[in-house]
């Protein structure tokens, strides 16, 4: 009985924490969209969300995290999905499945559009995104190398070339999607970009 009560309490606490986190994220995204990322302060986001700055930093380590969401979660979804693809799937199919899974993590199409718009139009955010993208590629390196039967020893550039190409196509797809006002699906645009490169 005590264990059931503890589980219910933990679940309620988790739900409360998740709702608070979502409220902070939505407030931050609204302010970033209305007045610009660089012009919005942490103090303003905390005030509008009805929390202290200390509470905000408990949920999110940096201002950038308020836009990008949980990057560790995105990275985990990406590597897990790629790793779980069947052995007969080639590297392109495995990476596409990983990208599709990460894109599905976004709360809504509208929020995804605003996030990508801010990301592509704010220089300070683009720099941080590039660093995260390189980290994701490093995490995927052994998975893609194994799928290509290549030993990662620094002398063979093929695995890095495949990863760089796939991520560049994802960038091109998301930029096109933003330019089109969110029309269509990013993953379909990714397919078009990859077909152009591989064709």
Distance between the termini: 63 Å
What is the level-2 CATH architecture name of the largest domain? Answer: Orthogonal Bundle
- Main sheet characteristics: none
The Cα radius of gyration reads 19 Å
CATH homologous superfamily annotation of the largest domain? Tetracycline Repressor, domain 2
Number of strands: 0
Order of helices and strands: HHHHHHHHHH
Q: What name does CATH use for the topology of the largest domain?
A: Tetracycline Repressor, domain 2
Characterization of this structure:
With 199 residues, the protein is an all-alpha fold. The protein folds into 2 domains: 2-63, Homeodomain-like (Arc Repressor Mutant, subunit A, Orthogonal Bundle); 70-198, Orthogonal Bundle (Tetracycline Repressor, domain 2). It contains 10 helices and no strands. It is globular and about 55 Å long. The protein starts with a helix and ends with a helix. The relative contact order is 0.09.
